[in-house]
Amino acid sequence: MTYRTTRQWTLALAGGIAMIGALSATSPALLASPHPGASPALPAHHFWDDLTLEAMPGDAWERLRENLAWQERRHDARVQHWIEHYRANPHNVVEIIERARPWMAWITEQVEQRGLPGEVSLIPFIESSYDPHARSHRGAAGLWQFMPGTADALGLRRHGGYDGRLDVVAATHAALDYIELQAEQWYEGDIELSLAAYNAGAGTVNRARHGAQARGEAGDYWQLQLPNETMQYLPKLNAIAAIIDDPDAYGVALPEIDDAPAFAKVPVNRPIELAQLARATGVAASELTALNPGLTNGSANPSTVEVVLVPVEQEELVLAELSAPAPQASPAPAGDGQYLVQRGDSLSAIAARHGIGVAELRQHNGLRGDTIQVGQTLEIPHRSLAAR
Asked: How far does the signal peptide extend, from start to end residue (predicted)?
């Protein structure tokens, strides 16, 4: 099935398509084994031996099923191979699905809004096992496994304690843009071919397609001769989609995931330390860290990011804390006769504040110059009443 996006792109953006499409392989399929080092499958072990939960109507899976578009592919031999593979490795599947819990509903919503096949929502299952911190030996990173060059072309910045490839919201928007751009530029809107190019690079797919057409063969994904990883890419995707679409047919009971997104976006209007925000609001620091993997140093700055993600049920609490006036720093004594240097302090200002001379303060603390550091403790010379 061919899908065309109706979105309008600016001339400047269109001009960058050729550069993006010419990039080489963007991401590894981390489940090729499906995981390096994964324990061997037990032949007699199946999903129904391990999974007992039932999917509830109206959950994220129901919404995803409504948007699946390629289910006729489940009968393909390559897809059947991966269905059996997943059935033989239920613990891996369950672990991946649980890791997807914070992201599944929101990603499905984004895919649905663009009119893309629902299967696109499951690409992170193949790419990163839904691990926002995943990194490959080739240099790809994040839920969508962007290579540095592709990330740069798509505007995913990496600086100042921030990596856009690890930012799930930013990377998801970039990935869906990329898939649509390639489909329009190279493949007359064919999303399957665009996904193949997402894995192998547009150049590899285009050469295979041209070669097939020159031989009088169809140029669709399922007829192309591609690198093995790319040959298995869509079969893996369709296999897990088939299981999600009809879990009863495969003896599977999926864990429940709510249909509504699990997080809310909170504007960043001033620097935010996640650990400090957690202490002030009572939100678990581990939750804030997990929802904001792109903040690699645990802090958000308006010059770097526009929003931080917080658990949706605690959005109002966090907004109230962030809207409160920022506390004003005030000089804090470190003890009797001591002073703790604050940001913006100078030796002359401290001396004037305590009614002593700069030279006296410098000599009393054994300083050779006027340089002082934030957090440094200075001894303040004691003066008798007679000397005042």
From this structure: 1-31
From 62, 95, 127, 229, active-site residue = 127
Q: What global pTM score does this model have?
A: 0.71
The secondary element (H helix, E strand) that includes residue 338 is strand 338-340
Structural contact between residues 296 and 160, judged by C-beta atoms closer than 8 angstroms: no
Taking only the tens place, the pLDDT of each residue in 190-247 is 999 999 999 999 999 999 999 999 999 989 999 999 999 999 999 999 999 999 998 8
**What would you measure as the largest C-alpha separation in the chain, in angstroms?**
106
Handedness of CA 231, 71, 127, 80 (dihedral sign): negative
CA distances from 165 to 19, 74, 234 (A): 19, 31, 23
Q: How many CB atoms lie within 10 A of CB 194?
A: 26
The backbone torsions φ and ψ at residue 13, rounded to the nearest 5 degrees and listed phi first, read -70, -40
Q: How far apart are CA 314 and CA 115, in angstroms?
A: 31
3-state helix, strand, coil in the chain (%, to 5): 45, 10, 45
Interacting residues of 331 by C-beta distance below 8 A, sequence separation 6+: 339, 340, 342, 345, 353
Nearest to 174 by CA among 157, 189, 160: 157
Q: Establish whether 54 is a catalytic residue.
A: no
User: b or e along 315-331 (b: 16 or more beta carbons within 10 Å of the residue's beta carbon)?
Assistant: eeebeebbeeeeeeeee
Q: Tens of pLDDT along 76-129?
A: 999 999 999 998 887 788 889 889 999 999 999 999 999 999 999 999 999 999
Tell me how far the alpha carbon of residue 228 is from its chain's centroid.
27
Taking the C-alpha atoms of residue 26 and residue 182, their distance in angstroms, rounded to an integer, is 13
Cα–Cα distance between 335 and 338 in angstroms, integer?
A: 5
CA–CA separation, 211 vs 224, rounded Å?
9
